[in-house]
Amino acid sequence: MAASIGEQLRLAREERGIGLREICDQTRISVHYLEAIEANDYKRLPGGVFNRSFIKAYAKCVGYDEREAIEGYTRYLREHGDTSDDVNTTPMHSKVYTDTPATRSPLLTVFLAILILAVLTAAALAALYWFQKRAENRAAPKDEHHASMYNGRSPTTDNLKLLATNQEVLPIHDYIRHFRRTDLRRRTSNPRSL
């Protein structure tokens, strides 16, 4: 009888003079699992894909053909009637049940999505319109204030008389701005006054 895969891997390891601890460090497989592989005690391994991965990594580390190691492992399982390593190919179904089945039409779903998008777009446009009107209303009183201050004409001494008789008290910075502008106009229009 031919040696099992676990024995073949152990012999390959011993021929190379490699200890289990070195294989553990290189493959990150626990020494406990490596001993189980050498003893063909696959029930101590995690199972499934992990077993195949462990055997493949072990074979690669000791210089043994990986494909042959996996085939030997599969053969060993078949000979001993162990099917615990077979990958489950049947689809898993959800065990969560709802009270009512999903009966909503795809057309209704599309209609609702379009309706929600339309409502959100309308809300965004309304907010934009409101902010623009608000900004215009804030800018309008300032323009009216300055237009009424000068009655649509450039500031002159007549306008200043009107300002003095006007009921509204203007902030001082408007007067200062007015006098700076008139002073600058005089200087630029009459170079002799400099």
> What is the CATH-assigned architecture of the largest domain?
Orthogonal Bundle
In percent terms, what proportion of residues is strand?
A: under 5%
Rg (CA only): 46 Å
Annotated CATH homologous superfamily of the largest domain = lambda repressor-like DNA-binding domains
CA-based shape: elongated
The CATH topology of the largest domain corresponds to 434 Repressor (Amino-terminal Domain)
Order of helices and strands: HHHHHHHH
What does this structure look like?
This protein is mainly α and about 190 residues long. It has helices spanning about 5-15, 20-25, 30-40, 50-60, 65-80, 105-150, 155-165, 170-190. Helices cover about 65% and strands about 0% of the residues. It has 2 domains: about 5-80, 434 Repressor (Amino-terminal Domain) (Orthogonal Bundle); about 130-194, no CATH class.
Task: Provide the fold topology.
Layout: H1 5-16, H2 20-27, H3 31-38, H4 49-62, H5 66-79, H6 106-150, H7 157-165, H8 172-189
Helix pairs in contact: 4-5
Give a brief outline of the structure:
Residues 86-91 have low confidence and may be disordered. The chain has helices at 5-16, 20-27, 31-38, 49-62, 66-79, 106-150, 157-165, 172-189.
Name the features.
mainly alpha, 434 Repressor (Amino-terminal Domain)
